[in-house]
Amino acid sequence: MPNRPDEARSEKKPLLLPVDQALAAILALLPQTNTVTKPLDKALGFTLAEDLVAVLTLPPQAVSAMDGYAVRAADVTSLPCKLTRIGESAAGHPWTGKIGAGQAVRVFTGAAIPDGADTIVIQEDVDPVAEQDNVEITVRSAEIAGRYIRPAGLDISAGQVILPAGTLMSARAIGLAIAAGLTQASVRLRPRVGVLSTGDELVSPGELPGPGQIISSNASFLANFVSACGAEAVDLGIARDVPGAMLDAVRRASNLDLFVTTGGASVGTHDHIVSDLGSSGQNALHFWKIAMRPGKPLISGNINGIPHIGLPGNPVSTAVCALVFLRPAIAHMAGGTASSLQFLMPLAVDLDVNDQRQDYIRAQITTKDGIQVIVPAPRQDSSMMSVLATANALIVRPPFDPAKAAGEFVSVIPLPDLG
Ligand code: AMP
Ligand code: MG
Asked: I need a surface site. Which of 18, 146, 326, 405 has the fewest CB within 10 A?
């Protein structure tokens, strides 16, 4: 919980790199992946490298939006009135004649509008003598002309850009492209993200930890998170806390678009990521340490031409930094922009003044007296995976955010279902 009024008072302005600037700097350094043509049924989760242009117009001709009767508006101005049913137009079975004065054609949803008709009366407003041609129908009520007619091209027109480059291909977007007569799309390849865990205390999942050891969970988290973001994770294993171990690991990897490490990012004697980055002319440390909690020791660097993001080792710090930096980084490399769902919600409890670091507070969106409120978890320790795994949102507090009382609004990011 942010409860540091003394710290907040003593720090007048941010000394660490603000989160937004750190993110912009990371994105500016990331190249986009190559393009490839994919059949649309394999394009889910890929980002368009080029605009998609419709081949077909939809609907191809004016169609009825309702079940009813196609009529001339001029014939249904004084109601009730009687018309003669002269034919039927159903979806896939157009009626090819022309409606004259006093005539009506039975229509169904999606059916072509017969020539001469300019309005639809819905079947609920019509009493037919029978469901057949050449019988009288009585129209009791009618809407304004054109009310239930979908004109040709209402949805899309041939030649129109239906989805611009940069669009993430969702099930909805693929459905649209298929309907527009397309079969394939030019998309960007999934970025290949190498994941290296660092720490002498780590054993791999499945191994029994000895004294002082823990199971490395960050690589599993990142493999799933990266894949949910539309990238391919490459597990580079565990590097020990010795100088150069990270450089050896990245040298062994091939074709990485991005290299991510967890741990070893701090200032301890056994943290070697920052010193490794400065150890040869091929490598670069762009920045280190940002105004964020959790996640202060975040690193941006470059190793042998591969962009590097160094995440802190604490699993909650890894996860929050992955959400804030890695997700947009992957979207950017894949040619798009990560959607940022952030909204305001009333607090369920009071919060103290925030200090200079942008705070990401693990929290629960819950309903109180029929209203959704946000409840911060009582303990915010960045090692507590149990708190993160059961949270469904993060409260985002900007640096030096003043104290907030229950009922006041704060910014909230929902945690991704699969993240
Ligand atoms: P470090 O950033 O290396 O100082 O690590 C900070 C904390 O995160 C330590 O308690 C580590 O044991 C823990 N940690 C580091 N890497 C992992 C990992 N891969 N899985 C789980 N915990 C980790
Ligand atoms: Mg460590």
From this structure: 405
CA 200–ligand 2 middle distance (angstroms): 7
Q: Whose CA is nearest to atom 20 of ligand 1?
A: 216
CATH no. for 40-58+155-188: 3.90.105.10
Domain boundaries, the chain: 13-34+190-333, 40-58+155-188, 63-150, 343-414
The protein residue whose alpha carbon is closest to atom 10 in ligand 1 is 314
What is this structure's pTM? 0.90
Which residue has the least CA distance to atom 18 on ligand 1?
216
CA of 198 to the centre of ligand 2 (A): 6
- SS3 for the chain is CCCCHHHHHHCCCCCCECHHHHHHHHHHCCCCCCEEEEEHHHCCCCEECCCEECCCCECCCCEECCCEEEECHHHHCCCCEEEEEEEEEECCECCCCECCCCEEEEECCCCECCECCCEEEEHHHEEECCCCCCCEEEECCCCCCCCCEECCCCCECCCCEEECCCCECCHHHHHHHHHCCCCEEEEECCCEEEEEEECCCEECCCCCCCCCCEECCHHHHHHHHHHHCCCEEEEEEEECCCCCHHHHHHHHCCCCCEEEEECCCCCCCCCCHHHHHCCCCCCEEEEECECEECCCCCEEEEECCEEEEEECCCHHHHHHHHHHHHHHHHHHHCCCCCCCCCEEEEECCCECCCCCCEEEEEEEEEEECCEEEEEECCCCCCCCHHHHHHCCEEEEECCCCCCECCCCEEEEEECCCCC
Give the Å distance between the CA of 314 and the centre of ligand 1: 5
Q: Which residues line ligand 1 (CB under 6 A)?
A: 197, 199, 201-202, 214, 216-218, 262-266, 271, 312-315
According to CATH, the topology of domain 63-150 is Molybdopterin biosynthesis moeA protein; domain 3 (2.170.190)
The rounded Å distance from CA 375 to ligand 1 centre is 27
Pocket test of ligand 1: the residue of 314, 318, 382, 383 to mutate, having most ligand atoms within 8 Å of its CB, is 314
Compute, in angstroms, the gap from residue 221 CA to the centroid of ligand 1: 13
- Minimum-distance ligand 1 atom for the alpha carbon of 271: 3
Instruction: Give the homologous superfamily in CATH for domain 13-34+190-333.
Output: MoaB/Mog-like domain (3.40.980.10)
- Which numbered atom of ligand 1 lies nearest the CA of 238? 19
343-414: CATH topology = Beta-clip (2.40.340)
